[in-house]
């Protein structure tokens, strides 16, 4: 919903969009001025920086294990102390409730004839006693629920303790899930960026922008069928408005490309983009992988039940992404990008276009922005979802236009303004309605406690179920 928390999520998403736009502006400058066309080499420092989260993760895991062991020992001690007293309370309460005849035998209680079925007529003293019995029964039910909750927590702690020896990275860092999950994440995240960067070599910016926007439907489809999210018609309206804004911006770029084509010969254009179909395919794969990567990331950082806490979930996600992606980057750079690295090193000596200080400054700025982007993404996906994250990143192109206005004094084109309004409006519409994440949590909570609520208070349970059903009648 669009409240204080919704406004925070929107502003947080725009901060992420601005940070990543600044990062790729620096990368574009490195590619054009310094001939840095090795995508895995350029992003390797970012993943290496993320791998340093292994130190706080290792320390947090050790503290968590010590805490779980101490808590388990304390619970065993408390359980041994309570074993002698806890079983007596339900038994006494049951005897008091199941033996109404004993009420009339108390001193000072008028004795009345007892019907053949064993029932007695009620007196004010008996009504008071029955009220106390009902209150005692309610307290016993409350205690039973608390004990059930404690048992669930104990079982969860035991599962977390067993998980310490089940999954790990090289036997050093305990993991909450198999390492294969993080391998898939690292490959999807790395090659989403690599494919998009490679696509710029073979096709136009317009085609890459179209394919890159596929991250939104990719994340929606995967969230629907894997995470079980349900999207309302309002969500589809917001996404549609954003996509129309994107295509307006792309149409403007396309018109500029057509205008340029009339100024050059056709064979020169063919020489500039000799493998346009390959570039479109790479852009398509990059857009789909961006949606897959963001959805997997959301699942990992939000799975607090498996990880133990939000902090450990974030640390484990960032650590394993950094370590595994760094290994892939180093390997690919060594075997596939040696020639490009040599060209880049030779271009550094050209003081006019690419000095050493300029390279270090741009590369450090790019790495710092990407590092902040990954850390912020992990936190953003814990308070929001992958689809809204991709919608928020759509404004990155407009931040790049802002850079051009202030740095190069270039006025934006006519379609820039309606595109910007559509994207901002679609993002606000998407966030104003009930979040698919909140709706899913409400739905799961209702399923988890529906049976108990129906037994305790059927009227309240029916009201909650009807309210939930009416709230999601148009969800798909």
Characterise the protein shown here.
The protein folds into two domains: 4-57 and 168-433, no CATH class; 439-476. The protein is 79% helix and 1% strand. The chain has helices spanning 4-33, 39-51, 54-82, 88-98, 101-104, 124-166, 179-202, 205-212, 215-225, 233-261, 266-272, 276-302, 304-307, 310-336, 338-347, 356-383, 386-392, 396-408, 416-432, 436-456, 458-471, and strands spanning 168-169, 173-174. A hairpin with a 3-residue loop joins strand 1 (168-169) and strand 2 (173-174). Helix 2 (39-51) packs across helix 16, helix 12 (276-302) runs antiparallel to helix 14 (310-336) and helix 12 (276-302) crosses helix 17 (386-392). It is a multi-pass membrane protein. Belongs to the SLC35F solute transporter family.
């Amino acid at each position: 919903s669009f409240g204080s928390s919704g406004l925070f999520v929107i502003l947080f998403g725009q901060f992420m969009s601005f940070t990543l736009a600044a990062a790729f502006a620096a990368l574009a400058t490195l590619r054009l001025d310094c001939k840095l066309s090795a995508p895995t080499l350029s992003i390797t420092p970012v993943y290496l920086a993320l791998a340093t989260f292994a130190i706080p993760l290792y320390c947090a895991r050790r503290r968590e294990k010590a805490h779980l062991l101490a808590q388990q020992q304390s619970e065993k001690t408390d359980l041994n102390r309570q074993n002698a007293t806890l079983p007596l309370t339900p038994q006494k309460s049951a005897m008091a409730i199941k033996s109404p005849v004993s009420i009339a035998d108390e001193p000072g209680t008028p004795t009345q004839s007892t019907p053949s079925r064993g029932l007695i007529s009620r007196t004010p003293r008996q009504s008071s006693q029955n009220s106390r019995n009902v209150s005692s029964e309610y307290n016993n039910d409350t205690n039973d629920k608390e004990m059930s909750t404690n048992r669930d927590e104990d079982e969860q702690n035991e599962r977390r303790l067993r998980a310490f020896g089940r999954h790990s990275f090289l036997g050093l860092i305990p993991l909450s899930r198999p390492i294969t999950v993080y391998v898939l994440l690292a490959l999807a995240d790395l090659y989403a960026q690599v494919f998009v960067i490679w696509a710029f070599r073979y096709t136009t910016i317009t085609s890459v922008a179209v394919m890159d926007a596929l991250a939104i439907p990719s994340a929606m489809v995967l969230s629907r069928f894997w995470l079980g999210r349900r999207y309302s018609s309002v969500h589809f309206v917001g996404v549609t408005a954003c996509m129309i804004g994107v295509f307006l911006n792309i149409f403007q770029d396309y018109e500029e490309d057509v205008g340029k084509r009339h100024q050059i010969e056709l064979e020169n254009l063919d020489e500039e983009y000799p493998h346009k179909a390959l570039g479109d395919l790479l852009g398509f794969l990059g857009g789909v992988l961006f949606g897959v990567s963001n959805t997997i990331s959301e699942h990992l950082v939000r799975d607090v039940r498996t990880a133990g806490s939000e902090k450990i979930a974030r640390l484990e996600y960032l650590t394993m992404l950094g370590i595994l992606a760094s290994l892939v980057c180093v390997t690919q750079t060594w075997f596939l990008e040696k020639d490009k690295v040599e060209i880049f090193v030779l271009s550094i000596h050209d003081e006019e276009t690419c000095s050493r200080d300029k390279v270090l400054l741009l590369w450090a700025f790019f790495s710092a922005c990407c590092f902040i982007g990954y850390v912020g993404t992990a936190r953003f996906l814990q308070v929001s979802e992958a689809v809204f994250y991709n919608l928020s990143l759509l404004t990155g192109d407009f931040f790049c236009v802002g850079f051009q206005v202030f740095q190069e004094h270039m006025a934006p084109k006519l379609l820039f303004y309606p595109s910007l309004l559509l994207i901002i409006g679609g993002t606000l519409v998407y966030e104003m309605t009930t979040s698919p994440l909140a709706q899913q949590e409400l739905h799961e909570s209702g399923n988890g406690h529906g049976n108990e609520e129906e037994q305790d208070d059927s009227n309240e349970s029916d009201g909650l179920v009807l309210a939930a059903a009416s709230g999601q009648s148009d969800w798909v």
